[in-house]
């Protein structure tokens, strides 16, 4: 398998120094009390807004004890690079533009909050960055009044680092909706190469599939994992259960599986799956000749004006189906517009405040057990996965990007494909029970309300 070139453009190590006025004034920013933030722009990409920490004017930064932090990142495809580099031939180099504000973020009566301190612009020479790293700025920049060095007033100073690094990824695309048992192709430019097939099924079909390949494991053990995890909630009423999707190599051998283990059940007196009682998928992969639980995906329907699909994904340490997991992603997707399911362990850390179009980067593991930085978290660094999810009622053919460093064999790639199918079908599993599901998702001789 050949990867596609991607480049991660990163802004990090932000800090702000603001000179303290000799005499108090209502128009002066007081670093001890005024929050600061910045808006980061790259042409044709969504604006990102992040907090900028204030430090005393006399302090050095970084001082060797502070960890380098990532504030924002932009992921550039080969076409993005071509567009930005070709434009620079005629219009100069592309620029990263950063506007720094003091005050609280948001709007009041339609007017943006925050007072502009100043703006900086960093030129970017992106040619060749798909194969080598490049640093465009690392250090302090004067901003605001006095930034031009006229000596009339002291200026604020912004510390930032801007760099680019290669971030190659494998790109897969479902040739149809996951519940229609499609092929999955590897994409590289205009070349499409089939690499997997998916088989959607109901009931215990997925369990029987596990035993279809000769291996050292006892298939009954695999079935017991699924049945034991789902037994607590299997009761009559409004529920969606029994869905599974198995990912096969082109030879026909199964290599990954996603199966509902906790039914998606309507909350009493309601027609929606609630956050307090989510449905769950178990993701399994083939390794060392045996099926092993790899991850668990919970999903529910958020209340309120957003009415989104809430989800939480966690890795299962030691490949144990009953162990406490390490949360790598937790966010919300728009049920009308869809978005992207993302795991980015070097993310910008503000993913939860970004629009529902995107994301859930989590920069440090969360765990109900004391795992710290032990496996499997340590195995997942940098960009891990991005998968597109369409909104309700739209044809969904997920496009899956996986960081090259996380794929060493076909089983590695297949488990991410299975996870992508699970998050995509969760949009239907969490559909209001007052709405009918498409026929492909309704088991034979059973009608969902």
From TrEMBL:
InterPro entries: DUF1005. Residues 231-240 have a biased composition (Basic and acidic residues). It holds the Pfam family DUF1005. Residues 209-240 are annotated as: Disordered. Residues 217-230 have a biased composition (Low complexity). It comes from the Eukaryota. This is Formin-like protein 18. It comes from Cinnamomum micranthum f. kanehirae.
């Amino acid at each position: 398998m050949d990867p596609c070139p991607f480049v991660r453009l990163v802004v990090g190590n932000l800090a702000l120094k603001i000179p303290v006025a000799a005499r108090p004034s209502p128009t002066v920013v007081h670093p001890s009390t005024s929050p600061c933030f910045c808006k980061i722009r790259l042409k044709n990409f969504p604006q990102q807004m992040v907090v900028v920490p204030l430090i005393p004017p006399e302090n050095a930064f970084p001082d060797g004890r502070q960890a380098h932090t990532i504030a924002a990142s932009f992921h550039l495809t080969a076409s993005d690079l071509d567009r930005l580099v070709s434009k620079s031939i005629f219009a100069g180099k592309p620029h990263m533009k950063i506007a720094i504000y003091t005050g609280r973020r948001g709007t009041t009566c339609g007017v943006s909050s925050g007072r502009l301190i100043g703006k900086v612009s960093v030129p970017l020479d992106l040619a060749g960055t798909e194969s080598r790293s490049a640093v465009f700025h690392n250090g302090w920049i004067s901003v605001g009044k006095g930034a031009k060095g006229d000596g009339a007033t002291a200026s604020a100073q912004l510390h930032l680092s801007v760099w680019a690094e290669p971030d190659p990824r494998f790109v897969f695309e479902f040739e149809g909706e996951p519940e229609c048992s499609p092929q999955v192709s590897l994409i590289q430019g205009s070349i499409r190469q089939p690499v997997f097939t998916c088989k959607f099924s109901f009931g215990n079909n997925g369990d029987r599939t596990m035993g279809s390949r000769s291996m050292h494991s006892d298939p009954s053990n695999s079935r017991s994992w699924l049945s034991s995890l789902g037994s607590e909630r299997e009761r009559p009423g409004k529920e969606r259960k029994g869905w599974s999707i198995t990912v096969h190599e082109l030879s026909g051998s199964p290599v990954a599986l996603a199966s509902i283990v906790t039914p998606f059940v309507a909350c009493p007196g309601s027609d929606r799956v609630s956050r307090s009682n989510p449905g769950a998928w178990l993701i399994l992969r083939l390794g060392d000749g045996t099926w092993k639980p790899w991850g668990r995906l919970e999903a529910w329907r958020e209340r309120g004006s957003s009415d989104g699909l809430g989800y939480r994904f966690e890795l299962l340490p030691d490949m144990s189906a009953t162990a406490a997991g390490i949360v790598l992603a937790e966010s919300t997707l728009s049920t009308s517009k869809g978005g992207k399911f993302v795991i980015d362990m070097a993310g910008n850390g503000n993913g939860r405040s970004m629009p529902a179009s995107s994301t859930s980067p989590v920069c440090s593991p969360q765990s109900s057990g004391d795992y710290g930085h032990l496996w499997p978290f340590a195995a997942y660094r940098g960009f891990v996965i991005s998968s597109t999810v369409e909104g309700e009622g739209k044809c969904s053919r997920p496009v899956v990007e996986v960081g090259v460093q996380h794929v060493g064999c076909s089983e590695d790639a297949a488990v991410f494909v299975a996870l992508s199918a699970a998050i995509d079908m969760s949009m239907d599993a969490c559909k209001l029970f007052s709405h009918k599901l498409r026929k492909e998702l309704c088991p034979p001789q059973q009608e969902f309300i």
